[in-house]
Every structure is written in C-alpha cells, then in structure tokens.
UniProtKB/TrEMBL annotation:
<protein>
    <submittedName>
        <fullName>FMN-dependent oxidoreductase (Nitrilotriacetate monooxygenase family)</fullName>
    </submittedName>
</protein>
<comment type="similarity">
    <text>Belongs to the NtaA/SnaA/DszA monooxygenase family.</text>
</comment>
<dbReference type="GO" id="GO:0004497">
    <property type="term" value="F:monooxygenase activity"/>
</dbReference>
<keyword id="KW-0285">Flavoprotein</keyword>
<dbReference type="InterPro" id="IPR016215">
    <property type="entry name" value="NTA_MOA"/>
</dbReference>
<dbReference type="InterPro" id="IPR036661">
    <property type="entry name" value="Luciferase-like_sf"/>
</dbReference>
<feature type="region of interest" description="Disordered">
    <location>
        <begin position="299"/>
        <end position="320"/>
    </location>
</feature>
<feature type="domain" description="Luciferase-like">
    <location>
        <begin position="25"/>
        <end position="376"/>
    </location>
</feature>
<dbReference type="InterPro" id="IPR051260">
    <property type="entry name" value="Diverse_substr_monoxygenases"/>
</dbReference>
<dbReference type="Pfam" id="PF00296">
    <property type="entry name" value="Bac_luciferase"/>
</dbReference>
<keyword id="KW-0503">Monooxygenase</keyword>
<keyword id="KW-0288">FMN</keyword>
<dbReference type="InterPro" id="IPR011251">
    <property type="entry name" value="Luciferase-like_dom"/>
</dbReference>
<keyword id="KW-0560">Oxidoreductase</keyword>
Length: 430
C-alpha cells in the first residue's frame, strides 16, 4: 500500500527564496496575499499553512537591509483572520519560546484552536540573538545551553495549562514551579477541539532533534536531499523510543522548493532563470559581505571573488544566522569559483539557491513519492518563490498526480489538524 504524504505551505517572506522583483509578486502584509495562498493550499487539501516569525527588521552595515521586506505582521493575528476564510486547513504560527511567556501564549494558541475548530499549530523556535533580544524587556539573550531547557519547560507548562480544563468543560486551578517559570491560577480558555494545538519544532542541532523527539508532533527540517533526508529521518525517529513514543508520533517535513515545466528540460531552464532573479547583483554582493564581514560594495558582482580574507569577528549583518567559520566558507567558495571559473554572482547562485525538486509534474510527483516511500520524509513544507501565487502550479499540476498515485489525499478525512496529520488527541493529564 502506498504511504500517503503530508503537505504544508509556507508563506514566503524574509529569505533568499522570494523573488520580489517579479511583477506577479504582491504585498507580504496585505491580508489578500495571506488569504490567496491559504485558499490555494486548502484547495490542494494541504495539512497546514505555515507562517514564519520576524521579531526585528534585519540590518546590514548599520542600516535596515533595503533588499529585505520591511514589515512583519504578527503571525497569530493573521491566522485568526484566516480561520474565518478557511474550513479545514491547519494554521501554524512560529512563536519564539525565548521571548514569550507560557500563560499568555498558551491562551492565544488555545483561542486560535477554538476559533478554527481545532486547526491551530505552534512552531516552537528559540533564539540566542542579542540583537533581537534588545526589543524585549528582559533584554539580551539566553546562552545556547539554556535555550532548549527553557523551550522544553515552556511547552510542558503550556500543556499543563491546556490540561487544566477537563474534557467535560470543568476548570481546575493550576500551579507550575520550575527552573524558568513559576505560574499559578486558573486558565481562562476551555480545552480546545483537538485537546492541544499541534506542536512543530524547527532545528537541526542535536539539542533540537532531542527536543523534537521528546515534545514535538512535527519537525521542520532543511534536509532536502534524499541521502541527507534519510540520515536525518533515521536519527530523529530512533530517538522517540526513549520517550515512549512511536515512529508515527512525529512527522518529519523538510522545507522544499519546486520548479515545474512542461518537460524536465523546460523546468531546468525555469529554475536557472529563477535563481538569477533570486540573486540580483545587489543580493550577490550582500551574500558576499555576509561571509566576508566586510564592506565589498566596490566589487563587481560579475568579477572575481575578493583576494582578502573574511573578518571572523564582524557584526556587519544583524538579525541573520551567523556562519560557524567564515574562513572555511570563503575557502570553499574560492575553490568552487576557481574550479568552474565563476564570478561572484555565479558563485552565490551556485552555493545558496538550489531548488529541491525540478522537473515536469510527473517527474516532481515521482521524486516526492520516492522521498516518502524510502524513509527520507513524511511530507513536505513547500516554500514558493512568489507571493502569493507561487503555490498554484504545484496544486494545479502536481497534486492531481499524487492523488492518482494514492500518495496524497483526495479529500480531508477529518476537520482538525491532528486528524490531517494522523495524530491522536493527547491524553488528558488532569
């Protein structure tokens, strides 16, 4: 029997994937953009719609990065509005466990779960970013060793709050005293339609994998190649037993991009053009500066890489994930550039913007099915390169083929996100 995959849609925002210069691209703030992509995902019978988080505008060389979007709406507010214009689609918000508090966030998530009749999800992320932390009263940031202990206690505390109402609608006082949180009182929101909102975790570190195995329902990963996916999949699934969990209790869903053409050759041409649009001359220099940590605006993006070394201690870019070793990355880029005769822009294109699946609808459908059937993923979170219409080609041309193969649902079997994902409602722990 063919194993059915899970599909979700990521609303593109601040990343190196979105092509804002395309005339079909629309606002990342207007509700119409969110609504269009969500309705497309629901038309395709997707499991959920996924929003990232932006707690501070990113800066480069002391200024707001003018090639980024300016304006990041708060995710739960957007999803509450989307609950009114969708019927079955899950609604997932990325919310930081470092800069929030359990009672308030548990209340907001439970409210979304009620308003959507059981379709809420929380993507739990952490932060070690002092630049972002400056926006918050507590300030600063948590050491890496403390981020996941706080996140684990945060999720456990939220679940205690959700369980403080019995399934028959009776409220009970709660009290939690731990390393990071001391809270007590009575929770204001009754138990929600799916018991608890679905918990998603994004992170590939050892701590992140262990946290996902112990506490998450879905893990969002960047391992988009077949071999890397199989290794990651086997590693995370093997960690579940120690927590008394079964392999199907945690769904592994890599974030992927898809480029489609009438033929495989046309799709390759389309992908090459998209990569050039994603890496404009200005973005090529920006990417170079993020590695080198220096102002390289005088360099020609169609010329060779700099012969000077990176500044490992630079803080030229703020609000982006840092490189573990810029000197190593620069050496890799130089070796690639020399071997293939690549310019700065060509090197950045070669190293930063690979699409995951490229081909005709038939080719893409077959490759997606291979990933799932051979233990590299349980499904995929699609990240289109256009807002908000980038998902339409996949829904119109690939989803019907997956349905014909029996690899994806033709209709929703239930009404809650847990039912879409094949997850049992959590046992009440009163």
């Amino acid at each position: 029997m063919t194993k059915q995959m899970h599909l979700a849609a990521h609303f593109p925002g601040v990343n190196s994937t979105t092509v804002w210069a395309d005339p079909r691209s629309r606002s990342q703030i207007d509700f119409a953009s969110f609504e269009q992509l969500a309705r497309t995902a629901e038309r395709g019978k997707f499991d959920f719609f996924f929003l990232a988080e932006g707690l501070r505008l990113r800066e480069h060389n002391g200024l707001i990065h003018d090639l980024d979007v300016v304006g990041r709406p708060e995710s739960l507010t957007v999803l509450n509005a989307l609950a009114a214009v969708t019927d079955r689609l899950g609604l997932a918000a990325t919310v930081n466990a470092t800069f929030n508090e359990p009672y308030e966030l548990a209340r907001r998530l439970a409210t979304l779960d009620h308003l959507s009749e059981g379709r809420a999800a929380w993507n739990v992320v952490t932060s070690s970013d002092a630049f972002t932390g400056e926006n918050f009263r507590r300030g600063g940031y948590l050491d890496r060793s403390d981020r996941y202990t706080r996140a684990a206690e945060f999720v456990a505390t939220a679940r205690e709050l959700w369980d403080s109402w019995t399934p028959d609608g009776t409220s009970r006082p709660f009290a939690h005293s731990g390393q990071h949180f001391q809270v007590s009182g009575e929770f204001t929101v009754p138990r929600s339609p799916q018991g608890h909102p679905v918990v998603i975790q994004a992170g590939d570190s050892g701590e992140g994998r262990e946290f996902a195995a112990s506490a998450a329902d879905v893990i969002f990963t960047r391992h988009g190649t077949l071999e890397a996916g199989r290794i990651f999949y086997a590693d995370v699934k093997a960690r579940l037993a120690k927590y008394g969990r079964q392999p199907d209790d945690l769904k592994i869903m890599p974030g992927v991009t898809v480029v489609i053409g009438d033929t495989d050759a046309e799709a390759q041409q389309n992908a090459a053009e998209i990569r050039r649009l994603q890496v404009s001359p200005q973005n090529a220099i920006l990417a170079l500066e993020q590695v080198w940590g220096r102002d390289l605006s005088s360099y020609d993006p169609d010329g060779p890489l700099p012969d000077i070394d990176p500044d490992p201690g630079s803080r030229l870019s703020q609000g982006r994930a840092g490189l573990a070793d810029p000197l190593v990355r620069a050496a890799e880029w130089r070796a690639l550039s020399a071997a293939k005769g690549l310019s700065i822009r060509q090197t950045v294109i070669e190293t930063t913007t690979r699409q995951s699946f490229i081909g005709s609808p038939q080719t893409v459908a077959a490759e997606l099915e291979t990933f799932v059937s051979t233990g590299a993923a349980d499904g995929f979170i699609l990240v289109p390169h256009l807002t908000p219409g980038g998902l339409d080609p996949f829904v119109d041309r690939v989803v019907p083929l997956l349905q014909e193969r029996g690899a994806f649902r033709s209709e929703y079997a239930g009404s809650t996100l847990r039912s879409h994902l094949g997850l049992a409602e959590p046992v009440w722990k009163g």
